[in-house]
Amino acid sequence: xxxxxxxxxxxxxxxxxxxxxxxxxxxxxxxxxxxxxxxxxxxxxxxxxxxxxxxxxxxxxxxxxxxxxxxxxxxxxxxxxxxxxxxxxxxxxxxxxxxxxxxxxxxxxxxxxxxxxxxxxxxxxxxxxxxxxxxxxxxxxxxxxxxxxxxxxxxxxxxxxxxxxxxxxxxxxxxxxxxxxxxxxxxxxxxxxxxxxxxxxxxxxxxxxxxxxxxx
Length: 216
Fold this sequence. Notes:
The chain has helices at residues 9-18, 23-37, 48-65, 116-129, 198-201; strands at residues 5-7, 71-73, 80-82, 88-94, 147-155, 159-170, 176-184, 188-189. The protein has 216 residues and is α+β, with helices and mostly antiparallel strands.
């Protein structure tokens, strides 16, 4: 297994540019997703805030990149955003506490295990990484396949830490256990959260919903 290439600060910006991306664009997407997630309260079904964050992150990537010639697909329910030459795919997922941590000794991973589609994509990454490829190039024409990068984000009340990284191995439990490259994004500092305590702010009669029975 090759050693992970860790990109930070100006080096991270250079590497993102090679992929047709930049940290400002990714920061804007993650902030919009955070604002969407904050709209959900304890009155909503469990997990809705996280689903909203994920959905808005994927949609934000596509809205930003499709005008630049990127495309997307959802094969096996894996929401991919694809570069114009389809050499690069980006998927997004919630990461654990190590997501965005520049310490070379940590191995970030997903907060939740992923399915077969992600495992297959990472296996393809691993096969391509066995080739002695120049750092700035992808697979030669004789090799079919797309390298799948993961936008890994970890939100807290104070900040979002994130990275765009190239996974190389998935463990038995469906979590990424090794990375080929890690592009660490700057920490995104958040404003203090505004609690939407709807249940305490709205009088009970304002929550009544009129129901009309239709005649047969």
